[in-house]
Amino acid sequence: MNKVVKDAAEAIAKAGIGDGAVIMAGGFGLCGIPEHCIAALRDTGAKDLTIISNNCGVDDFGLGLLLQTRQIRKMISSYVGENAEFERQFLAGELEVDLVPQGTLAERIRAAGAGIPAFYTPTAVGTKMGEDKETRDFNGRTYLMEHALHAEFAIVKAHIGDESGNLVYRKTARNFNPMMAQAGKITIAEVEELVPAGKIDPDHVHTVGVYVDYIFEGKNYEKRIEQRTTQPRP
């Protein structure tokens, strides 16, 4: 199978992402997000989307672009504090939100990719997030059962990829991207540099190509910084 496509638009068309799709979107804050795939999704006009992502970008960038066009019906995420439009839609009852503790979100995604249907965690025991969930005691401590989190599609961003779909992430971009690549039934990877198959040292591969269905090289990444903090110069 030839996994290399020209751009995000071609990848999304071939993957068949449309109305009502459940999509995992990689990245942490604005780091390592699939910028081109998000923009291409906006351009398709696909609506009623369920997006699984650690956060929802900012008002005018990242997944925030899909909020502006009202294409997202439901968000499953951990942190939503940097997006005023997200807050407005949620408080107005226009957006369904499932807040998940960050570690639990990561493990639910990882479990899906590993074929584990459910697991137990002490996080959220005794809180509103833990209501109506099955519990069990281990060694005198109460744990919640959490189910694996699956998605039809995953869109991820890597630093380097090869034509077989093997991926290498850079630093913070390794948050969520690798586990989402494994959990999506169909995975699209956008990379900053696309190299021939065999060019990447196997010991350096973070996501093996068997998990990737489509791959393309993106250009002109913005790589915005969500909150810039600098120390005054002497």
Describe it.
The protein has 234 residues and is of the alpha/beta class. The protein has a single domain (8-217), classed as 3-Layer(aba) Sandwich (Glutaconate Coenzyme A-transferase), CATH 3.40.1080.10. It is built from six helices and eleven strands. It has helices spanning 8-15, 35-44, 64-68, 84-91, 102-114, 177-183; strands spanning 22-25, 49-52, 72-77, 96-99, 118-121, 135-138, 141-147, 151-162, 167-168, 184-195, 214-217. Strands 1, 2, 3, 4, 8, 9, 10 and 11 form an eight-stranded mixed beta sheet that branches. Strands 5-7-6 form a three-stranded antiparallel beta sheet.
Topology:
Layout: H1 8-15, E1 22-25, H2 35-44, E2 49-52, H3 64-68, E3 72-77, H4 84-91, E4 96-99, H5 102-114, E5 118-121, E6 135-138, E7 141-147, E8 151-162, E9 167-168, H6 177-183, E10 184-195, E11 214-217
Features:
three-stranded antiparallel sheet; 234 residues; alpha/beta; 22% helix; Glutaconate Coenzyme A-transferase
Q: Can you give me a brief rundown of this structure?
A:
The protein has helices at 8-15, 35-44, 64-68, 84-91, 102-114, 177-183; strands at 22-25, 49-52, 72-77, 96-99, 118-121, 135-138, 141-147, 151-162, 167-168, 184-195, 214-217. With 234 residues, the chain is of the alpha/beta class.
